[in-house]
Design a protein that fits this description.
Blueprint: H1 2-11, H2 48-63, H3 68-136, H4 157-160, H5 164-168, H6 172-182, H7 189-200
Helix pairs in contact: 6-7
């Protein structure tokens, strides 16, 4: 028995921890450390099976050890990983927002430039029209007409090289390109010629042979 083994061992002067070979007891732990007395057994102990059971019990106890430091470290790593994920998402959202703002700014700049270009073109057209009218106002029937800029640009050369008299002699089909270039119209040839010459600043009426 355990008591006899203890008694015999003590007679021989050996140090024996009886708890080590009694596997019916729970082995206490203190802050995850096993009392070393459980490992102090006599080398002359005959019951090797009980000694083996004792070591097995130690192994079972150590499996249940908890390591708060490691657990806390894992929790910190998990939290850090979550924070990094949130930071990455926030940075991506900020980058997307910045790209959207840049795109919106570029669109606004493009629209503004288009508006500026339109205004400049209109200024050039008005200045060109004023200059052409001033010249045509003092021209004779045989002088070449001065055609101002239109919405589409300058009058083609093949159309611009014409005098007031020659323009009046054109038929309606020949007048059509001039009228379309300046966005003019008329119900008949006489009205079309009148509208075109008035737009160009030419004298139109009694005394110059171009009366209605």
């Amino acid at each position: 028995t355990t008591q006899n083994t203890e008694h015999v061992a003590r007679q021989k002067g050996d140090l024996v921890a009886t708890d080590c070979v009694d596997n019916t007891k729970e082995y206490p732990t203190n802050n995850n450390r096993i009392d070393c007395r459980f490992l102090m057994v006599s080398p002359n102990m005959s019951d090797c099976e009980k000694l083996s059971n004792a070591f097995q019990t130690i192994a079972d106890v150590t499996k249940n050890f908890q390591f708060p430091a490691s657990a806390n470290a894992d929790a910190r790593f998990d939290r850090l990983e979550a924070l990094l994920g949130e930071l990455k998402t926030d940075m991506q959202n900020r980058q997307t927002d910045m790209q959207n703002r840049q795109t919106d700014m570029q669109n606004r700049q493009t629209d503004m430039q288009k508006s500026i270009d339109t205004i400049l073109i209109e200024i050039q057209r008005v200045e060109s029209l004023a200059s052409a009218r001033s010249r045509n106002a003092v021209s004779t029937l045989s002088d070449k007409l001065c055609f101002p800029r239109g919405v589409g640009g300058l009058m083609p050369d093949q159309l611009g090289a014409i005098s007031t008299y020659d323009l009046v002699e054109l038929n309606r089909w020949q007048l059509k390109p001039y009228l379309e270039f300046y966005g003019l119209a008329g119900h008949n040839k006489g009205e079309e010629v009148k509208n075109l010459l008035q737009y160009l600043g030419c004298r139109y009426g009694e005394g110059i042979g171009l009366g209605p």
